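Practice problem. Given the sequence and the SMILES for magnesium ion, write out the predicted structure.
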Amino acid sequence: MLVGPDRRILLANTAARDLFQAPMQGLSVASFLRQPDSLSALDKGFAAAQAGSAAPHPAEARMFLASGGREATLRVQVAALAQPVGGAVLLVTLRDVSQQEDAEQQRRDFVANVSHELRSPLTALSGFIETLKGPARSDPEAQAQFLDIMEREAQRMSRLVGDLLSLSRVEALERVRPRDRVSLVEIVEATLAALRPKIAEHRVRIIIKDDGELPAIPGDKDQLIQVFHNLIENAVKYGGAGERVEITFERLDSLPGMIGPVQRVTVRDFGDGIDAIHLPRLTERFYRVDGHRSRALGGTGLGLAIVKHIVNRHRGRFVIHSVRGEGSSFTVKLPTG
Ligand SMILES: Nc1ncnc2c1ncn2[C@@H]1O[C@H](COP(=O)(O)OP(=O)(O)OP(=O)(O)O)[C@@H](O)[C@H]1O
Ligand SMILES: [Mg+2]
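Answer key:
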């Protein structure tokens, strides 16, 4: 917007009027840029204009805006225009930097989370190394016990690094459409074969339901194996108390929000279920309902984040339903063409 010497708005473009959802022309600029930082940027702009020096850099401020049910962070820039007859005119530019700042915040959180997740196994390892070099030097029984723990901690670190790498590979490919054609039934069968020991350990019965032939669909085999590996492993690990896990395959002609026919695979368990408050955050990186239990079972908390990215890459949908005390179902819907 352009602001005249009496601090009234001479001109505001459509974007500015959309932002404030108000007519602006002729009104005082201070009623829109109300925060101290932006007001002082205005003062600096006027001072520069009056001094007749077109300042080499515009004055800047950050401003928070809450309007129309949304919040935004704006970068305000105030530049003095060459002094026309009749007083200074300022050019005020507002840029919505909310998304950029959110992304930066997410990156910072991510680094903090990764460091935190790596630190606990590392602390355990260094502690046991100290003990093995000192007090347990000549105690073979303790040594064997500590080495077992160290092995578990090292495995946890390598799982974490493995999951982080696969997350970043999936993200890098997110805009590349998968080219191969795959059979979801075969993918789930391969996954079940790999998970057989874990399924036996938790004494869970797997029940497969399908309604006839399912044609191959476009997909990345390795990635879809990761999807079903995590979903079935979760169902067995966290929902295993229900003693059975159902995997249902369906073919649908259409689904709201998706183009063309769809194949739908649901992994359902009959365990404890998940409280509704956790559901929206479940696919966030490192989010766990019961962090202690997940870690004890060897989880990194990245599984569902990876699932979500892979399903996105396949232009599919991923939906979680759960009722406390009745179990959970995780549904993947993939387009067939
Ligand atoms: N079927 C389920 N029943 C109950 N809780 C579940 C189920 N599936 C996932 N959860 C909860 O969601 C959390 C996140 O799952 P996710 O697969 O992302 O991580 P994880 O299993 O802890 O670790 P990872 O998959 O990397 O081994 C789990 O820690 C668990 O608390
Ligand atoms: Mg998991």
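Check your answer against the key. The chain has a mean pLDDT of 91.
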